């Protein structure tokens, strides 16, 4: 008899409503000042991965923020005398719309084009109008060159302008990291309970700038990351996997060990072991002494 399978659990409307109530959203101050502002959740492509991500857009406030969700289980917080469970925490952070426009401008970087031909999503045409609205929130001259031909306004991606626009952002993030005394040493635990050592304080110039570069790079394509790294004068980090290095060293040691053993080990000559003859075998051998082989009778006579 076949085992009975478990029926999939179907969430009812009450459970889904509870799940929505147990979401904890952390908003920046810029989005909490005006409670009457119209804010809507929209989906846009992430500038690094090109996958759809959730953003919070306010046309009146002219702000754009990204929402990142982290699932939690068995978590809660206190509100007065109540214990409120948490199933998910949503972090909402402000984002410069220029980061979202960079992939579209780089794609059309070979020539000057109108803006409505640059901010085009071939797979999701419904995003085109939204991208044009978001273009009003940003200064496109910071990443592109503007050219006017009669009544026509053309744009082309400018890498130098982009690097000059990104450099102050990295310096600003590095300044915040230094002010907050964030430990950016890769070999140390990052926690507010840990104090910075003298070694990490004395070597903060390059470490803080590189850490800020890593944060900004989360919104940049790999090609821009390399150009920005060179523009900042930071050396490229060669990835070193300790486990792989150890494995390779073990293989080399093992190979060398086997090779040395093989070369230094003397060659053994195995002795041929003759089986002992029984009494019957000895009698047959003695009886056959002096007799000729049967093949000798078929030889030609000379």
Written account of the structure:
- There is one protein chain.
- The protein has a 5-stranded mixed beta sheet. A 3-stranded antiparallel beta sheet has the order 6-8-7.
- By secondary structure, it is an alpha+beta fold.
- 38% of the residues lie in helices and 20% in strands.
- It has helices at residues 13-21, 97-107, 115-118, 128-134, 159-179, 198-202, 204-217, 222-232, 242-264, 279-287, and strands at residues 23-26, 40-45, 52-58, 63-79, 82-94, 113-114, 144-149, 152-157.
- It starts with 12 loop residues before the first helix and ends in a 15-residue tail after the last helix.
Beta-strand percentage range? 15-25%
Radius of gyration: 38 Å
Mean pLDDT: 76
Largest sheet: 5 strands, mixed
Shape: elongated
Order of helices and strands: HEEEEEHEHHEEHHHHHH
- Contiguous helical run count: 10
Helix content: 25-40%
End-to-end CA span:
89 Å
The unreliable regions are 7-19, 189-194
Number of separate strands: 8
**Helix/strand/pairing category:** alpha+beta
Name the strands of the widest sheet in spatial order: 1-5-4-3-2
Features of this protein?
302 residues; single chain; alpha+beta; 3-stranded antiparallel sheet; 38% helix
Secondary-structure blueprint:
Layout: H1 13-21, E1 23-26, E2 40-45, E3 52-58, E4 63-79, E5 82-94, H2 97-107, E6 113-114, H3 115-118, H4 128-134, E7 144-149, E8 152-157, H5 159-179, H6 198-202, H7 204-217, H8 222-232, H9 242-264, H10 279-287
Helix pairs in contact: 5-7, 5-8
Concise overview:
This protein is α+β, with helices and mostly antiparallel strands and 302 residues long. The protein has helices at 13-21, 97-107, 115-118, 128-134, 159-179, 198-202, 204-217, 222-232, 242-264, 279-287, and strands at 23-26, 40-45, 52-58, 63-79, 82-94, 113-114, 144-149, 152-157.
């Amino acid at each position: 008899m076949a085992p009975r399978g478990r029926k999939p659990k179907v969430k009812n409307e009450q459970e889904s409503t509870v799940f929505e109530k147990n979401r904890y959203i952390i908003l920046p101050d810029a989005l909490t000042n005006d409670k009457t502002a119209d804010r809507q959740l929209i989906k846009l492509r992430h500038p690094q991965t090109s996958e759809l991500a959730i953003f919070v857009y306010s046309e009146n406030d002219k702000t754009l923020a990204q929402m990142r969700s982290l699932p939690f289980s068995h978590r809660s917080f206190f509100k007065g005398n109540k214990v409120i469970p948490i199933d998910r925490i949503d972090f909402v952070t402000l984002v410069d719309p220029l980061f979202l426009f960079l992939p579209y401008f780089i794609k059309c970087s070979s020539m000057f084009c109108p803006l409505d031909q640059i901010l085009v999503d071939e797979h999701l045409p419904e995003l085109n109008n939204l991208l044009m609205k978001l273009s009003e929130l940003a200064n496109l001259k910071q990443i592109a060159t503007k050219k006017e031909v009669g009544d026509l306004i053309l744009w082309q991606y400018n890498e130098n302008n982009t690097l000059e626009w990104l450099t102050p952002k990295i310096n600003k993030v590095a300044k915040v990291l230094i002010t907050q005394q964030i430990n950016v040493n890769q070999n140390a635990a990052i926690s507010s309970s840990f104090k910075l050592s003298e070694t990490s304080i004395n070597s903060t110039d390059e470490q803080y700038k590189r850490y800020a570069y890593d944060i900004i790079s989360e919104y940049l394509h790999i090609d821009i990351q390399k150009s920005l790294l060179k523009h900042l004068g930071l050396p490229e980090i060669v990835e070193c996997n300790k486990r792989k290095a150890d494995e390779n060293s073990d293989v080399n040691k093992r190979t060398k060990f086997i090779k040395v053993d093989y070369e230094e080990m003397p060659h053994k000559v195995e002795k041929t072991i003759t089986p002992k003859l029984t009494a019957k075998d000895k009698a047959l051998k003695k009886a056959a002494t002096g007799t000729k082989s049967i093949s000798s009778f078929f030889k030609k006579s000379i």
